[in-house]
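Progress report, Aim 2. The chain analyzed during this reporting quarter is listed below.
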Amino acid sequence: MLHQILTFILSIRWQDFIDIAFNSYILFRLYALFRGTDAFRVLIGIAFLWIMQRLAVSLGLILTSWMMQGIIAVAALIVIVVFRNEIRSVFRARNIWAVLWGLPRKPMNTPVEIIAESVFELAKRRIGALIVLPGKEDLEEFVQQGVSWDGRVSREMVESIFWPNNPVHDGAAIIKEDRIVEVGVILPLSNRKDLPGFYGTRHRAAAGLSEITDAMVVVVSEERGSVTITRGFDVFVIDEKNQLVDAIKEHLGIREDQGQLLKRRKIELRLAALAALLIVSIVWFSISRGLDAIKTFDIPVEYANQKSEMELLNTSATSVQLFLRGSRALLKSIRPEQIRVKMDLGKAVEGTNTFAITNDNLSIPPGVSLKEVRPMVVDVNLDTRTQKTLPIQAEWVGRLPSNLILVHANINPSSVVLNGPKTILAGLQTLYTTGIPLNNIEASGKTEAKLVIPSAFLKLERGSKDTVEIEYEVRKRE
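Predicted structure tokens for the chain:
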């Protein structure tokens, strides 16, 4: 068991570590960006369906696997279409650094006390106001004609926005965390019939937005000086400042133990990172190791450490077939030049040497194993290199003119030294030149001819020429 574990660990490539780490980080970033949203909960459901689909494949449930695959494809499309607002709100107003690396920062608490004091001060002065406190949903599709503001929440800021002489006092102000992000916003009106008849445009706009989103809207009536809040289909009249403070805190999820909450969030993120690593590792193992396949490679045999006095004459195989086992995805990525078959001739002797092809002779990428090799042995024929002096014989071809006779011919040099395997040189007694045509000769003279080396293993001694000079004498026939 321990040997199998060690073999598996050694078979993991450095590319696999990068692959697992990269995808684990992507999964962790998706969690950090979308945690707490409805889209994330749907993604969890899709992940569960994927696990069920893989289980159906492993059990051979063809129809169930096919149905699960179709449901996953449709569900992924639904997430993009239905939750496009949540996805856009996550990436909006974020730089690329915040998306790829930034962790959730310490929450910026909304100054609830300041908002409550401002609201009741406006109610005391009979100044109408409409304040929107968004929930988790994006409001962009439901509001319009707002003016970007981005000012820090303060009592003076809130009162100045809704001052009757301010051009944007009739619209709503949207507050996110400690910033007033937009003013003069037009909200959708409610068509409900059960609202009191004395409710004006502000109250119907507040009810209209809270009916279709998860936002809470605070309304100050300039006619009655009353404070009303709307959440969902509920409308509440607020009589005291503390009552408004509690309502806003409940809506925004503000708790007294923010330090403990931040500490728990850090622990949660660490556990999420560990879970992402574990999930991706399991998926990687199921994909890369679960789909086992066999692929054949034709690899040339390399010979190394050949002794300088030895000559390799021939081998029984110039290449071998390797049958490698591994994941289908990994085998597809392997190139033949990544595999080597290397034979060590350091201890080879003169004559025929037989070498068995084992794992010691192979260099294969990690993650795959050798199933079979053909042939299993290779015969290598070696011979000792030596020297031999051979006389040179001119090779005459054709016929002299009928009136001429070749008296004699001198070859310069008359012999050469050849280097090569001993067995080949032993069978040679004479070295011939290329053919010298006789029918072109009309008188005595000189010519040059190249030497014919009968084997590629034979070489002329260093400094020797591969041509000879032939001086010949002819005379007329009597």
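The chain is about 35% helix and 30% strand. The chain has a mean pLDDT of 83. These observations will guide the mutagenesis work planned for the next reporting period.
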